[in-house]
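CORE FACILITY INTAKE
Project code: CF-77B
Contact: R.S. (postdoc)
Sample description: multi-component assembly, two entities in total
Requested service: structural model of the whole complex
Turnaround: standard
Below are the sequence entries exactly as provided by the requester. Do not edit them.
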Amino acid sequence: DTGVSQDPRHKITKRGQNVTFRCDPISEHNRLYWYRQTLGQGPEFLTYFQNEAQLEKSRLLSDRFSAERPKGSFSTLEIQRTEQGDSAMYLCASSGEWASEQFFGPGTRLTVL
Amino acid sequence: QKEVEQNSGPLSVPEGAIASLNCTYSDRGSQSFFWYRQYSGKSPELIMSIYSNGDKEDGRFTAQLNKASQYVSLLIRDSQPSDSATYLCAVNIPNDYKLSFGAGTTVTVRA
């Protein structure tokens, strides 16, 4: 039983570049979440999918951010025109349809220079 | 007012002692409560979930919930150096699947 996986684990980019992260949830989980965590803070919710439908987006998710889950399996999070303030750990989590417990992947640490 | 607040750390306890972590939440409709452990540079790991008032024990961990006081706590008994981590309290409300997290309390267990 594999857990949530994320790729890449680390990404260093220059300001203004676009980046894309991938998340593969636990196989039987139909709910998938993206969170962002900065140093000294708890994770902050970004967006949530049930199967392929994106059901909720945080106001933190500016127009530069877009997320997809095209076939209800893996998800991608893209950040366009990155800014230094985007530097953070991007966490993906998944849960089953009838469970509220969320399990996190290892995260993608983004550094914007 | 933040949705979820945790007592500020860091919390330093001697090996073998009990570490007590506290968390309060603002939404009275909250019904699911979680404790995550996060080692430095790693992602959060779910260690306890609690849904009804009272105590829930799992090994050396005990979660306590008091919905009337909007308070949830985590006790770590017989603390070990491997328990040194940041502990995150998370809450959600019915039909709202996102979790709201506190800022975390960092625990250091000294030998």
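Facility notes:
- The mean pLDDT of chain B is 94.
- Chain B is about 0% helix and 60% strand.
Invoice: internal transfer
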